[in-house]
Structures are given as structure tokens and as C-alpha cells.
Amino acid sequence: MPCQICRAQTRNVLTKEQNISCGDYFEGRRLYPEDRGALALMECISCGFARFEGMDRWSAEEFAERIYNADYHLCDPPFLGARPRKLAAWLASALPRQALVDYGGGEGMMAELLRASGFDAVSFDPFYGDGAPPAGGSPVVTAFEVVEHAPDQRGLFRALMELCDPSGIIIFSTLLKPAQLQGDWWYASARNGHVSLHSPESLRLLMAEFGLSFISLSAEMHVAARDPSLLEVTGTWPAIAVNDPPSATYRAL
Ligand SMILES: [Zn+2]
Asked: pLDDT band at residue 189, thresholds of 50, 70 and 90?
């Protein structure tokens, strides 16, 4: 299969049991002991975009059964509370009070916290069974730890742009990989639903295709806008760490 982003050839850089999760690297043990078979991580030889082979063909039912099931939270404990709290506090310190759509925000805790601090914030998560999306034209659209879960990158960014005002900004996080992965990497864990992993170059290509300027505030936090002058304000924003790195000593493989 050619690269989804640039159509160049891909190569297998990592083969990993699909039930290994990011959380294993933090806990130092397998959170889901059962083996379900290894998957090949295929990396583009040109832009560095990587994805687990075959997962793009899983049905919604397969994702619901194997990934987003009742045990999902085990592999990402901050998902339930700590991360929405941290991100809501960060946004409240960076942005003026305004309308905001949080895409892929699960049960909507971050949007709820932002409403409590004066934002007109709504959550929309198609994977949580939310029905019709909110009206487009929001000045701010957020998507935290969503990009790496989307098998269809163009479909995702099309959806984000439909929600965003032409003069708005899209704030999103996904941890960027090195152009060429060497050995194992905790973030490349299928059990978390991490199916699409960007390098700096593959993200640049995708943004350019959508006519978006963007700035990476860190290896994991990015801001995009049609009008590059809208990105200047990010220079005044406080720093944010979405994911703390796991213990360097644990080896899942
Ligand atoms: Zn590529």
C-alpha cells in the first residue's frame, strides 16, 4: 500500500502485538495480557507518515469491539479526567472567551469545563455516537489526541475545516514521530487506536494540501489557520505538555 499522504512507497519499520498499549510503557507491564496477533507498522520512505497495516480496513464494529470497548480507558487513564482538565485550563489561559467546538472530545468534559469558565464551548464526537455536527463557522476548533486515531486523515481534516470559520484556528495535538523510526516507540501502539502517525514532513504536506498554515508549538501541539497572521498570537501562549513521556526503562518488545 502506498503512503496515504504522499503516495510514495512504504516499508515495515516495526512489528508489534496489537494488544500492546501506550499505557504498558507507563505501567511497565502488559495491561491487556492476551495476544491477538502482531501488526506491521508501515512507514513512508519519503514523508515518514506511518500506519498500522490493515487497521484502515477495520469496520466501525471491529474498532468498537477491539479498541473502544469497556476496557479502553485502562490504556489511557488521563483520557477520563486529567487530560481534559489540563487542556481546559491551558485554553482558558491562552484564549479570549469565545465560541469553540471540541472535536473528538469523548464525553465532553473539556467543553463542559470551558463553559464553566465562560466559553461558548460544545463537544462533538462522532465516535461517541454524537449525531449531527454543530453548525460550522466556529472561531476555534480543537481536536486533542484525535489525529492519530483517524484512519482517514483527509476525511478528518475536511470535517475539522467544515466546523471552523474561514478566519478561525484549529488547535490539535498528536505526537510527531521522527522521519525514520528506529526501534520501538511507545506512541505507536495499536491498542490505543493509534493508527495514523505523522512525521513533521507528512503533517506539513497534509496542511499544505488543505491550504492551511500551521505552527508546531511542540512535538505534540499544533495550530493551523488559513490566514498565517492568525498564528502569531500563539507566541504568547503558555507552554503545554499533553503527554508526559513514559519511563525510558520499559521495553514492550
Ligand atoms: Zn508519504
From this structure: very high
